[in-house]
Structures are given as C-alpha cells and as structure tokens.
Specification:
Length: 211
Amino acid sequence: EENNDIDSERSLRTFALLCIGKLYLAFVMGEFGVVNQILEMAKSRVRMEQLMHPMALSAIELITGMASTCSGRRPTCRRARVALRRIKKLAYFSPNFHMGKVFLLEAEIAARKGNVNKSIMMYESSTAFFMKENVLYMQAMSCERQSRLLEKVGKPIEAGKYLQKARDAYEEWGCVVKLDQLDAILAKQKQVAPDGEDRLFAKPQHGEAKL
C-alpha cells in the first residue's frame, strides 16, 4: 500500500512536470488558447502549487494571468487579478525573483482595460528588470507583448522596433523555433526601399506619403 502511494505521487509529479513543460512552450510561442486548455486539464488531476518551488509557482501564475487577459472573456480576467495578487505576495519576500513578473502582468491587465500609457510604462519596467537580471526569454516576451500592443494602437514603426528587440533576445537565448515565428512576422512588416533601407525606418521620398 505504501508503494502504491509512492507510485501515485511520482505519477502526479511526472504529470505536473509534463504540464509545466507544455505550458512554458505554449507561453513562449504565444499560444494562450493552448495554455488555457493545459491549465484546465491539469486542474482535473493535480494541484500543481503543492508540487512546485515558489519560483516555478510564480511563473505558472504569470502564465495563467496572461492567458486569461488574452481570452477576451470578462470572468477569466478576474483570474489575472488573482494571479497578480499571488505574485505580489511572493515578490514581497523575494523581489529580485518576482517583481519582473508583477510588472509584466500589470502591463497585460492595463492593456486589457485599454490603459495604453500605463501598459507601456509597465512593459518598459518589465523589460528593464529582466535585462538587469539577464532573464532573456522573459525580456523577449515583454518586448514582444509591447510590440503587439503598439501594433494594435496604430504605431507600426515602434511595434517593429520592439519586435526586433524581442527577436534579438530570443536569438541570444537560443530559441530557434521562436526565431522562425518572429522572422515570418518581421518579413511581412518589412518593405525594402530602393536604397536598401528598411522602409519602416526610411525617410519618405519626394511625393511619397509618410507611413
């Protein structure tokens, strides 16, 4: 009977680790619909917070919160605020590990509410924090999400700059699959001017409308 309990616990831990791995992959790829599906599946089997270190737990809370802000459903947005409160509690005791996640989730919530200025300010704080701590994939995620917001509010030039920053950070991190994804987006954005400059940053020629 004791052996069965040990096997059951091992099985749950293996399942939790598998879910966490899939969550991180879906998170990095920006597949927040998949994130929500994995979270729902995990809830039916195990309370992952009982099996994880606080650092991993704060990451899961961040992923949960960001996925809820991207779902477009008002009730699930409450999950983002709950996740934010939980991360803030962790950040109170260990700010160096968790404050960047607080900034990033605050940016996502502000963007969801339409508060663009606050969202951009929080993205900038998040990016600066992760750069200081040399957390490349989170730095890249912060830049990528800010790029998406800028694109949405009609600032394609700034959006392109931040997407390039995200790409550079992902490249330094070594995430090849993410590079392919961002390169495809950047390829659509770029229009090469006759002199070889990127049209996003080139000055308009005589008689040419500004972008």
